[in-house]
Write a structure and sequence with these properties.
This protein is an alpha/beta fold and 231 residues long. The protein folds into two domains: 122 residues, Rossmann fold; 78 residues, Regulator of K+ conductance, C-terminal domain (Alpha-Beta Plaits). Helix content is 37%, strand content 26%. The protein has ten helices and eleven strands. The strands form two sheets. It has a six-stranded parallel sheet, with helices on both faces. It has a five-stranded antiparallel sheet with strand order 7-8-11-9-10. The model has no long low-confidence stretch (mean pLDDT 91).
């Protein structure tokens, strides 16, 4: 996550409980379903009446309407411009995606998240005002590649291109040793944030705490140093 993304997420209103999602493909449906299950009000739209009907039948949205999002009048009539956050989930139709993003930003929607299918698409979306752009397929592909090549890493949060926070299985080399004995900072330049215990994490573990094979630990540092761990 870069600094512009951090600024965007910090600007989101904590009391916002309504979202509009434009596009009901796989990505759009996933966003709708998750938000709806979390208790938020979700208005979804799509140009395909069948997808709108399915969203209502499957009860993954609060409301859904069929409309052409490239038409500002249709978006206004549906009340899209009144939402604080709008997700443009039209990734495979670049022209429609860009025009829709432009429409909602020109109407004054403060937070617009848009799905991109390529780097060029991302640049165009940012140019017309998208506040945050996501690459679901790219991000999923990167995550899968990391999992296949580093199966001991359970989860990763990228702070920037060079630094990350990772959750990993305690390496065999660390088994039975205390936090102080593994000398994580001196040997690898990393800082230990937490270790797991009985299904929960102990933050800032005591230096005398012994690590066990099969448990998890969370570290922060440079990706090059993380890659030097015996995993």
């Amino acid at each position: 996550m870069n600094l512009s993304s951090l600024k965007f997420f910090r600007s989101l209103r904590q009391d916002n409980n309504q979202f509009a999602v434009i596009g009901l493909g796989r990505f759009g449906r996933s966003v709708c379903s998750t938000l709806h299950n979390l208790g938020y009000q979700v208005l979804a739209t799509d140009v395909d009446e069948k997808l709108v009907s399915e969203a209502l039948t499957d009860e993954i949205v609060s409301h859904a309407v069929q409309l052409d999002s490239t038409e500002p009048a249709a978006l206004k009539e549906a009340g899209i411009f009144e939402f604080d956050t709008v997700i443009v989930a039209i990734g495979n139709y670049i022209q429609e995606s860009i025009i829709t993003t432009l429409n909602v930003k020109e109407a004054g929607v403060p937070h617009v998240v848009a799905k991109a299918s390529s780097e060029v698409h991302r640049k165009l979306l940012k140019r017309v005002g998208a506040d945050h752009v996501v690459f679901p397929e790219f991000e999923a592909g990167c995550a899968l590649a990391r999992t296949l090549t580093k199966p001991s890493i359970l989860d990763r949060f990228d702070l920037d291109p060079d630094h990350s926070i990772v959750e990993l299985i305690v390496p065999d080399e660390f088994h039975g040793k205390t936090v102080a004995e593994i000398q994580l900072r001196n040997r690898y330049g990393l800082n230990l944030l937490a270790v797991s215990q009985d299904g929960k994490f102990k933050i800032n573990p005591d230096p005398t705490r012994r690590l066990e094979r099969g448990t998890a630990m969370v570290v922060i540092g440079c990706n090059k140093d993380i890659n030097r761990l015996p995993i």
